[in-house]
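Hey L., structure's done. Input below.
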Amino acid sequence: THKPRTYPARLARVMGLASCFRPRDMSDDTPTKKRKTASTLEANRGIFTADENAMIDKLLGCGQDHLFSSWPAPGTDDDDKRRFLAQAAVCDAGYPGGIAQYVANAKKLLQESKDGVNPFDGWTPAVPDGIVVEYASKEHVELESEGMREVGSAAFVLVAGGLGERLGYSGIKVELPCERSTDSCYLQLYIQSILALQQRSAGEMPAHRSAKDVGIPLAIMTSDDTHAKTLDLLERNDYFGAKKEQVTLIKQEKVPCLTNNDAHLALKDGDPYALQTKPHGHGDVHALLHTSGCLDRWSAAGKKWVVFFQDTNSLVFRVVPGALGVSKQKGFVFNSLCVPRKAKEAIGAITELTHTDGRKMTVNVEYNQLDPLLRATINKDGDVNNDKGVSPFPGNINQLIVSLEEYKAQLAKTGGQIEEFVNPKYKDASKTAFKSPTRLECMMQDYPKSLDASACVGFTVFDNWVGYSPVKNSPADGVGKFEGGNPTHTATSGEMEFYGCAAKVLELAGATMAAPVDFAANGIVVPSGPKVVLHPSFACTFEELKGKAGKGVKVTSASSALIVEGAGVKIESLELDGALVIKACPGAFVTVKDLKVSNKGWRFEKCGADAPEIDRLRGFVIEKDETEELVFDQPGAYTVP
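Output:
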């Protein structure tokens, strides 16, 4: 009879084959193995510092003996052992309560997952308090005015921890151009939007002193993947006009992966001296703001609001002033910016939940959880559209506004820790083994789960066209979305929606704009109207824009392009068929009156697979055949023509 060949446990692990070849009586859980591990580990103690030994004790104290089972005697791999402990220390410091707390939380959540615990058991849903805002309406104009009185007392937080791999882009997402007419990248657009708000808020009113004295601060949450590249982008571009001290980078650390229901930490494949780690989720932004000191500094500077936004939504600043006005008017300590959502649409929904024990909270409920929750409680039909053709539960887009003082006090209680979840992929119905290591995750929109029932939490809904155009899918994924009748959320759609939003805002102000035509690129078809880029410096609110461009503007062809930059530009009358660029420096006041422009303009031409990466993402390039450029680089008063 052939006798199975046995490999030493350490060799098998390094080869990635330990689970296949290790004999049953040599498992990490046997007393013999544990004694051998303890003996070898004790022999290594003398080569480590006190802090390194303390880290070992922490790991042993939460049941992670297996991490040391393959360690050789002192003198072998000593630098690698120290490397391992240094990484463990980073994970320990980066999690509220350290690794021991992470393991304890993981054991609890993994057990609940195995037991099939329903997180909504005992909860009944209802539509929460909120407001649906029609852009350019009288109500919207009043809310924007209210918001602009508050914006100087706001701080902004950009969640930018992700690379562009999902998009098919090799760089960081905030460096991706949001449109190719000016090649302004997302981070540039965001900072220039903040500076434009700052310029308008730095007035005489006492509430605006903080904007005048210290500016409107921006914190950017980065990760190991994006931190250095984000800093480099800022420094190469002189912070896009912001003061260096106005921008703070806060780096998110990853968390260890888990191999089983006992919350054993996973080692990286092929490296027994490295923990396998993954991102913890954007919910970490709350703990980072708490521990970084940002909230204390902002509070001391007189700030009252914190506005959170995502990395590739070019339209968000169109709706920030109005949403901030809602927060002020309704006294919201937490305000979710939302969009209308169709029933069963794959987007989370803002929902008020009331428990049988009297607890109440307003939170995001994922779309695949909302329908069964409604069926089990208040509506046998589940998530259905109302008489307006949309679900009564608005769609969460993770653009948030919180009241700073309440937020700061709450994080002082919780340390910024957000309720976590785990989503292991089990090998079979026994739920005893994972297909691959999992980890705990948290989401920034779950912050309200930590608030008291008395906290005033609500939402503000704007239409998608004016406030939500994320770029998060690759061209290939976009085709699948398009064929399924869903928004593609690609670079192609994002660029056209950016132009379309500006054109529609001008139209609402009284301008005449040529109707869009269908444009096909990268396997999808999108509406393509006049290519309008209104620089943030031109206007921050609808009322301001209406006073600078409106009834006198007529763009006669869908292929036309209009680029306007400068707070001092006013277009009284313009007829455009082609491409026109107007740029005015600070202090230059330009009145455009009775101007007619007709030229060859710009063409959007499809590109092939050999095109540069940024062009391939969109599926087209811009050929600028002829452009009328009006550039005013000296202060003064000008009239055109």
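Residues 1-28 have pLDDT under 50 and may be disordered. Residues 98-115 form the longest helix (18 residues).

-- N.
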